[in-house]
Amino acid sequence: MNPPLPPVQKPTFPKQDPATPGFWDARFDAAFTPWDQGGVPQSLLNHVAQHPSPRKVLIPGCGSAHEVLFFADHGWDVTAIDFSPAAVLHAKQRLGKSGSLVREADFFGDAISREGFEVIYERAFLCALPRRLWAAWATRIAQIIPAGGCLIGFFFFDNNEYGPPFGIGRAELADLLSPHFALTEDLTPTDSIAIFAGKERWQVWTRLG
Ligand SMILES: C[S@@+](CC[C@H](N)C(=O)[O-])C[C@H]1O[C@@H](n2cnc3c(N)ncnc32)[C@H](O)[C@@H]1O
């Protein structure tokens, strides 16, 4: 009988700020992506099935961008962005000829807010941002999404001190979004991966007029 395999070791990384691309480059270069679901989450499959009219959607902080082909195959006009060159390279290589749907860009850069997105898909992006950036995130979300548009996706609720992932409180998320959005769906995901299990919700926030 073979001896048991040793536990997978977490690589060590230089101390870097998660607000910089280098933090994420190091993890993609080391193929250390424990947040990566490796596919399209069931809650998104359900949402698109229930909302058959395609819309123009932005995926900020897309990482491996597993959802891009799913959106495109359902007729959605999808753009995925990430500020980490290593993440973008990885996503483009994975997507082959659809790699042009992914581009290197900072969510906080100016260009993104002028491109007419109706929907923003959130997955492990807000919780990747240091908490000092959350107010700016909420401002940018409200700038991008017009009345009737939606912020859809997964929110990681926790009061952990260290991250990423940086957990948020329900009241804190509501404080950030409620000036411009109403919570219109709030469900337990059925296929959470280990680092988010029991602590994430699928939510839809609809932009008010
Ligand atoms: C935890 S990963 C999540 C990736 C992907 N959404 C997923 O669920 O697998 C967070 C991603 O956000 C990206 N990111 C962080 N800050 C960003 C910013 N200001 N603009 C664009 N991308 C950013 C990182 O490079 C990283 O790929």
Q: Give the domain tally.
A: 1
Mean pLDDT: 95
The CATH homologous superfamily: Vaccinia Virus protein VP39
Secondary structural class: alpha/beta
Q: Spatial order of the strands in the main sheet?
A: 3-2-1-4-5-7-6
Radius of gyration, CA atoms, in whole angstroms? 17 Å
Rounded to the nearest angstrom, the distance between the terminal CA atoms is 66 Å
Beta-strand residue fraction: 15-25%
Brief digest:
26% of the residues lie in helices and 19% in strands. The protein is an alpha/beta fold.
What does this structure look like?
This protein is α/β, with parallel strands linked by helices. The chain has one domain (37-207): Rossmann fold. Helices cover 26% and strands 19% of the residues. The protein is built from 6 helices and 7 strands. The protein has helices at 21-29, 42-50, 67-73, 85-95, 134-144, 170-177, and strands at residues 56-60, 77-82, 102-104, 119-122, 150-156, 181-187, 200-207. A 7-stranded mixed beta sheet has the order 3-2-1-4-5-7-6, sandwiched between helices. Strand 4, helix 5 (134-144) and strand 5 (150-156) form a beta-alpha-beta unit. Helix 1 crosses helix 4 (85-95). Residues 24, 35-36, 60-64, 81-84, 87, 106-108, 123-125, 128-129 line the site of S-adenosylmethionine (SAM).
